[in-house]
Amino acid sequence: MIKIMRRRCFALILSLMLVLSSTAFAFETEMVSEVDFGEYGQQAYQYLQYIDKHLPDRDSDGGKNTLEAQQWIISELMRAGYTDDQIQLQDFTFENEDEDEITTQNIIVTLPGQSASQIIVGAHYDGTGTGDNGSGTALLLETACRLVKGDKLKETLAFAFFGAEENDTDGSAAYAAAMSDKEVANTAFMINMDSIICGDFCYLYGGVADFKKERVVDTDAFEKVYAISQRLGLGLHLIPWTFDDPAPGFDTPDYPSPSVGDWSDHISFAERGIQYVYIEASNWDIPGPDKQYDGDSETADVGRIMHTKNDTLSKIEKFFPGRALYHLQVFSLLINTVLTEK
Prior knowledge:
This protein is an alpha/beta fold. The chain contains ten helices and nine strands. Helix 2 packs across helix 4 (134-147) and helix 4 packs across helix 10 (323-340).
Protein backbone atom coordinates (compact mmCIF):
# COMPACT_ATOMS: atom_id res chain seq x y z
CA MET A 1 0.00 0.00 0.00
CA ILE A 2 2.86 2.34 0.86
CA LYS A 3 4.50 1.59 -2.51
CA ILE A 4 1.20 2.22 -4.27
CA MET A 5 0.77 5.55 -2.47
CA ARG A 6 4.33 6.53 -3.31
CA ARG A 7 3.72 5.70 -6.96
CA ARG A 8 0.52 7.73 -6.97
CA CYS A 9 2.26 10.68 -5.33
CA PHE A 10 5.10 10.44 -7.84
CA ALA A 11 2.62 10.30 -10.71
CA LEU A 12 0.78 13.35 -9.34
CA ILE A 13 4.01 15.31 -8.93
CA LEU A 14 5.12 14.33 -12.44
CA SER A 15 1.82 15.41 -13.96
CA LEU A 16 2.00 18.74 -12.13
CA MET A 17 5.56 19.23 -13.40
CA LEU A 18 4.41 18.58 -16.96
CA VAL A 19 1.56 21.07 -16.62
CA LEU A 20 3.87 23.68 -15.13
CA SER A 21 6.56 23.10 -17.74
CA SER A 22 4.04 23.56 -20.55
CA THR A 23 3.04 26.96 -19.19
CA ALA A 24 6.33 28.07 -17.67
CA PHE A 25 7.27 30.01 -20.78
CA ALA A 26 3.80 31.36 -21.60
CA PHE A 27 4.21 35.14 -21.55
CA GLU A 28 1.50 37.68 -22.13
CA THR A 29 1.26 39.71 -25.32
CA GLU A 30 0.39 43.39 -25.33
CA MET A 31 -3.03 43.71 -26.98
CA VAL A 32 -5.25 46.68 -27.70
CA SER A 33 -8.93 46.57 -26.85
CA GLU A 34 -12.02 47.79 -28.69
CA VAL A 35 -10.62 47.07 -32.16
CA ASP A 36 -12.73 44.90 -34.44
CA PHE A 37 -10.29 42.97 -36.59
CA GLY A 38 -13.00 41.03 -38.40
CA GLU A 39 -11.40 38.52 -40.77
CA TYR A 40 -8.13 40.42 -41.07
CA GLY A 41 -5.16 38.18 -40.33
CA GLN A 42 -7.16 34.95 -40.21
CA GLN A 43 -6.16 33.75 -43.68
CA ALA A 44 -2.59 34.86 -43.06
CA TYR A 45 -2.48 32.64 -39.98
CA GLN A 46 -3.69 29.68 -42.02
CA TYR A 47 -0.98 30.39 -44.58
CA LEU A 48 1.53 30.60 -41.74
CA GLN A 49 0.47 27.18 -40.47
CA TYR A 50 0.98 25.73 -43.95
CA ILE A 51 4.41 27.32 -44.32
CA ASP A 52 5.47 26.08 -40.89
CA LYS A 53 4.35 22.52 -41.58
CA HIS A 54 5.12 22.03 -45.26
CA LEU A 55 7.69 24.67 -46.30
CA PRO A 56 10.19 25.10 -43.46
CA ASP A 57 13.38 25.21 -45.58
CA ARG A 58 13.05 28.03 -48.10
CA ASP A 59 16.73 28.96 -48.23
CA SER A 60 17.53 30.49 -51.62
CA ASP A 61 20.82 28.60 -51.56
CA GLY A 62 19.55 25.06 -52.09
CA GLY A 63 16.67 24.95 -49.62
CA LYS A 64 14.70 21.75 -50.06
CA ASN A 65 11.35 23.61 -50.04
CA THR A 66 12.32 26.72 -52.04
CA LEU A 67 10.87 25.72 -55.42
CA GLU A 68 7.85 24.21 -53.71
CA ALA A 69 7.32 27.50 -51.86
CA GLN A 70 7.41 29.42 -55.13
CA GLN A 71 4.90 27.06 -56.72
CA TRP A 72 2.60 27.25 -53.69
CA ILE A 73 2.66 31.07 -53.62
CA ILE A 74 1.85 31.23 -57.33
CA SER A 75 -0.92 28.64 -57.05
CA GLU A 76 -2.58 30.55 -54.20
CA LEU A 77 -2.37 33.80 -56.17
CA MET A 78 -3.96 32.21 -59.22
CA ARG A 79 -6.61 30.54 -57.10
CA ALA A 80 -7.50 33.99 -55.74
CA GLY A 81 -7.98 35.38 -59.26
CA TYR A 82 -4.63 36.54 -60.64
CA THR A 83 -3.79 35.64 -64.22
CA ASP A 84 -0.53 34.49 -65.78
CA ASP A 85 0.24 37.92 -67.19
CA GLN A 86 -0.02 39.48 -63.72
CA ILE A 87 2.63 37.17 -62.21
CA GLN A 88 6.30 37.48 -63.12
CA LEU A 89 9.26 35.38 -62.03
CA GLN A 90 12.27 37.69 -61.92
CA ASP A 91 15.57 35.80 -62.18
CA PHE A 92 18.65 37.12 -60.40
CA THR A 93 22.02 35.72 -59.41
CA PHE A 94 23.90 36.04 -56.12
CA GLU A 95 27.05 34.61 -54.58
CA ASN A 96 26.78 32.33 -51.57
CA GLU A 97 29.34 32.05 -48.76
CA ASP A 98 31.45 29.71 -50.90
CA GLU A 99 31.43 32.29 -53.71
CA ASP A 100 29.33 30.01 -55.89
CA GLU A 101 26.87 31.78 -58.18
CA ILE A 102 23.27 30.88 -57.38
CA THR A 103 20.26 31.77 -59.51
CA THR A 104 16.89 32.16 -57.85
CA GLN A 105 13.75 34.25 -58.33
CA ASN A 106 11.60 37.06 -57.01
CA ILE A 107 7.86 36.65 -57.55
CA ILE A 108 6.29 39.92 -58.68
CA VAL A 109 2.51 40.29 -58.82
CA THR A 110 0.87 43.36 -60.35
CA LEU A 111 -2.61 44.57 -59.43
CA PRO A 112 -3.42 47.48 -61.80
CA GLY A 113 -4.96 50.57 -60.24
CA GLN A 114 -6.63 53.69 -61.51
CA SER A 115 -3.33 55.52 -62.00
CA ALA A 116 0.29 54.89 -62.96
CA SER A 117 1.36 55.68 -59.40
CA GLN A 118 2.31 52.49 -57.59
CA ILE A 119 2.96 51.17 -54.10
CA ILE A 120 5.38 48.27 -53.72
CA VAL A 121 4.46 45.82 -50.95
CA GLY A 122 7.18 43.31 -50.24
CA ALA A 123 8.30 40.45 -48.00
CA HIS A 124 11.07 37.92 -48.39
CA TYR A 125 9.93 34.32 -48.69
CA ASP A 126 13.39 32.80 -48.29
CA GLY A 127 14.66 31.53 -44.95
CA THR A 128 14.22 28.66 -42.55
CA GLY A 129 12.06 30.32 -39.91
CA THR A 130 8.35 30.71 -39.36
CA GLY A 131 8.65 34.18 -37.88
CA ASP A 132 11.53 35.16 -40.19
CA ASN A 133 9.96 35.37 -42.62
CA GLY A 134 7.09 32.95 -43.00
CA SER A 135 5.06 35.59 -41.19
CA GLY A 136 5.69 38.36 -43.71
CA THR A 137 5.12 35.94 -46.59
CA ALA A 138 1.79 34.86 -45.10
CA LEU A 139 0.58 38.44 -44.59
CA LEU A 140 1.70 39.53 -48.05
CA LEU A 141 -0.11 36.58 -49.62
CA GLU A 142 -3.30 37.28 -47.66
CA THR A 143 -3.20 40.94 -48.67
CA ALA A 144 -2.62 40.22 -52.36
CA CYS A 145 -5.36 37.59 -52.46
CA ARG A 146 -7.84 39.79 -50.61
CA LEU A 147 -7.39 42.89 -52.75
CA VAL A 148 -7.62 41.15 -56.14
CA LYS A 149 -11.26 40.41 -55.33
CA GLY A 150 -12.24 44.02 -54.61
CA ASP A 151 -12.79 47.18 -56.64
CA LYS A 152 -9.93 48.72 -58.58
CA LEU A 153 -7.78 50.74 -56.22
CA LYS A 154 -6.37 54.24 -56.67
CA GLU A 155 -2.73 53.14 -57.00
CA THR A 156 -1.31 50.18 -58.85
CA LEU A 157 0.05 47.62 -56.38
CA ALA A 158 3.20 45.60 -56.94
CA PHE A 159 3.35 42.68 -54.52
CA ALA A 160 6.94 41.43 -54.34
CA PHE A 161 7.93 38.11 -52.79
CA PHE A 162 11.71 38.51 -52.54
CA GLY A 163 14.29 35.75 -52.61
CA ALA A 164 17.75 35.82 -51.01
CA GLU A 165 17.04 38.42 -48.34
CA GLU A 166 19.17 36.28 -46.05
CA ASN A 167 22.00 36.72 -48.58
CA ASP A 168 22.60 40.48 -48.23
CA THR A 169 19.07 41.38 -49.39
CA ASP A 170 20.07 40.42 -52.92
CA GLY A 171 16.53 39.77 -54.18
CA SER A 172 15.14 43.19 -53.32
CA ALA A 173 18.40 44.78 -54.52
CA ALA A 174 17.90 43.12 -57.91
CA TYR A 175 14.28 44.32 -58.04
CA ALA A 176 15.20 47.92 -57.15
CA ALA A 177 18.14 47.97 -59.58
CA ALA A 178 15.89 46.82 -62.44
CA MET A 179 13.44 49.70 -61.91
CA SER A 180 13.60 52.45 -64.52
CA ASP A 181 13.86 56.07 -63.43
CA LYS A 182 10.24 56.50 -64.51
CA GLU A 183 9.14 53.59 -62.32
CA VAL A 184 11.03 55.06 -59.38
CA ALA A 185 9.36 58.45 -59.95
CA ASN A 186 5.93 56.77 -60.12
CA THR A 187 6.42 54.85 -56.85
CA ALA A 188 4.67 56.49 -53.91
CA PHE A 189 6.45 54.33 -51.32
CA MET A 190 7.45 50.79 -50.44
CA ILE A 191 6.07 48.67 -47.58
CA ASN A 192 8.37 46.01 -46.11
CA MET A 193 7.01 43.12 -43.98
CA ASP A 194 9.69 41.21 -42.09
CA SER A 195 9.52 39.12 -38.90
CA ILE A 196 6.17 40.38 -37.66
CA ILE A 197 4.95 37.80 -35.13
CA CYS A 198 7.63 36.95 -32.56
CA GLY A 199 8.82 40.17 -30.96
CA ASP A 200 7.18 41.70 -27.91
CA PHE A 201 5.71 44.75 -29.66
CA CYS A 202 4.43 45.75 -33.10
CA TYR A 203 6.71 48.41 -34.61
CA LEU A 204 6.53 50.84 -37.49
CA TYR A 205 9.65 52.34 -39.07
CA GLY A 206 10.38 54.86 -41.80
CA GLY A 207 12.68 57.65 -42.91
CA VAL A 208 16.41 58.12 -43.43
CA ALA A 209 18.74 59.30 -40.68
CA ASP A 210 20.83 62.37 -41.40
CA PHE A 211 23.52 62.12 -38.73
CA LYS A 212 25.27 65.35 -39.72
CA LYS A 213 22.18 67.47 -39.17
CA GLU A 214 20.80 65.13 -36.47
CA ARG A 215 17.41 64.64 -38.04
CA VAL A 216 15.37 62.00 -39.88
CA VAL A 217 14.21 62.89 -43.39
CA ASP A 218 11.89 61.37 -46.01
CA THR A 219 9.21 60.51 -43.48
CA ASP A 220 6.06 61.48 -45.42
CA ALA A 221 5.01 57.87 -46.06
CA PHE A 222 5.78 56.88 -42.49
CA GLU A 223 3.77 59.77 -41.09
CA LYS A 224 0.80 58.89 -43.28
CA VAL A 225 0.79 55.23 -42.21
CA TYR A 226 1.45 56.02 -38.55
CA ALA A 227 -1.48 58.45 -38.52
CA ILE A 228 -3.73 55.70 -39.89
CA SER A 229 -2.50 53.30 -37.22
CA GLN A 230 -3.30 55.82 -34.50
CA ARG A 231 -6.76 56.44 -35.92
CA LEU A 232 -7.40 52.68 -35.90
CA GLY A 233 -6.19 52.45 -32.29
CA LEU A 234 -3.58 49.77 -33.03
CA GLY A 235 -1.03 50.90 -30.45
CA LEU A 236 2.02 50.54 -32.67
CA HIS A 237 5.42 51.25 -31.16
CA LEU A 238 8.23 53.41 -32.51
CA ILE A 239 11.92 53.04 -31.76
CA PRO A 240 12.27 55.00 -28.50
CA TRP A 241 15.77 56.41 -29.15
CA THR A 242 16.21 59.82 -30.76
CA PHE A 243 19.02 62.34 -31.27
CA ASP A 244 17.75 64.19 -28.20
CA ASP A 245 17.24 61.00 -26.18
CA PRO A 246 19.74 58.26 -27.17
CA ALA A 247 19.79 54.82 -25.62
CA PRO A 248 21.47 54.39 -22.21
CA GLY A 249 25.24 54.63 -22.53
CA PHE A 250 25.18 56.18 -26.02
CA ASP A 251 25.83 59.76 -27.09
CA THR A 252 24.17 59.25 -30.48
CA PRO A 253 21.49 56.69 -31.36
CA ASP A 254 22.53 54.11 -33.94
CA TYR A 255 18.95 54.08 -35.26
CA PRO A 256 17.21 57.38 -34.49
CA SER A 257 13.45 57.02 -34.46
CA PRO A 258 11.52 56.47 -36.67
CA SER A 259 14.32 55.26 -38.98
CA VAL A 260 15.88 51.81 -38.77
CA GLY A 261 18.92 49.83 -39.93
CA ASP A 262 19.81 48.51 -43.37
CA TRP A 263 19.32 44.80 -42.73
CA SER A 264 16.07 44.18 -44.58
CA ASP A 265 14.43 44.62 -47.98
CA HIS A 266 13.53 48.29 -47.60
CA ILE A 267 17.12 49.47 -47.90
CA SER A 268 17.59 49.12 -51.68
CA PHE A 269 14.46 51.19 -52.30
CA ALA A 270 15.57 53.88 -49.84
CA GLU A 271 18.90 54.06 -51.70
CA ARG A 272 16.98 54.83 -54.91
CA GLY A 273 15.11 57.64 -53.20
CA ILE A 274 11.87 55.69 -52.61
CA GLN A 275 10.33 56.25 -49.20
CA TYR A 276 9.59 53.12 -47.18
CA VAL A 277 7.40 51.91 -44.34
CA TYR A 278 8.69 48.85 -42.50
CA ILE A 279 6.64 46.71 -40.10
CA GLU A 280 8.28 44.35 -37.62
CA ALA A 281 7.76 42.82 -34.19
CA SER A 282 10.65 43.34 -31.78
CA ASN A 283 11.69 44.99 -28.51
CA TRP A 284 13.90 48.08 -28.70
CA ASP A 285 13.68 48.83 -24.97
CA ILE A 286 16.24 46.15 -24.11
CA PRO A 287 19.86 45.67 -25.25
CA GLY A 288 20.61 42.99 -27.78
CA PRO A 289 23.33 40.30 -27.62
CA ASP A 290 26.00 42.90 -28.49
CA LYS A 291 24.74 45.27 -25.78
CA GLN A 292 23.33 47.54 -28.48
CA TYR A 293 19.77 48.84 -28.27
CA ASP A 294 19.04 47.53 -31.75
CA GLY A 295 15.96 45.34 -31.35
CA ASP A 296 18.06 42.23 -31.89
CA SER A 297 16.86 40.42 -28.77
CA GLU A 298 13.23 40.58 -29.98
CA THR A 299 11.73 39.48 -26.64
CA ALA A 300 12.48 40.28 -23.01
CA ASP A 301 11.51 36.83 -21.75
CA VAL A 302 13.00 34.45 -24.30
CA GLY A 303 15.50 36.58 -26.19
CA ARG A 304 15.99 36.36 -29.91
CA ILE A 305 13.70 34.00 -31.86
CA MET A 306 14.86 34.53 -35.44
CA HIS A 307 17.75 32.38 -36.65
CA THR A 308 17.32 30.03 -33.70
CA LYS A 309 15.68 26.64 -33.21
CA ASN A 310 12.78 28.45 -31.51
CA ASP A 311 11.56 29.96 -34.78
CA THR A 312 8.76 27.46 -35.30
CA LEU A 313 5.06 28.01 -34.82
CA SER A 314 4.83 25.45 -32.01
CA LYS A 315 7.60 27.15 -30.02
CA ILE A 316 6.21 30.63 -30.65
CA GLU A 317 2.74 29.54 -29.54
CA LYS A 318 4.23 27.85 -26.47
CA PHE A 319 6.10 30.95 -25.39
CA PHE A 320 3.50 33.51 -26.47
CA PRO A 321 0.02 31.98 -26.87
CA GLY A 322 -2.07 33.92 -29.38
CA ARG A 323 0.69 36.38 -30.31
CA ALA A 324 1.19 35.19 -33.89
CA LEU A 325 -2.47 35.60 -34.83
CA TYR A 326 -2.82 38.88 -32.97
CA HIS A 327 0.18 40.49 -34.67
CA LEU A 328 -1.05 39.31 -38.06
CA GLN A 329 -4.45 40.86 -37.30
CA VAL A 330 -2.91 44.20 -36.30
CA PHE A 331 -0.68 44.47 -39.34
CA SER A 332 -3.29 43.09 -41.74
CA LEU A 333 -5.86 45.69 -40.71
CA LEU A 334 -3.26 48.44 -40.97
CA ILE A 335 -1.87 47.48 -44.38
CA ASN A 336 -5.26 46.84 -45.94
CA THR A 337 -6.54 50.19 -44.68
CA VAL A 338 -3.48 51.99 -46.06
CA LEU A 339 -3.82 50.38 -49.48
CA THR A 340 -7.58 50.86 -49.86
CA GLU A 341 -8.02 54.41 -48.55
CA LYS A 342 -9.14 56.81 -51.27
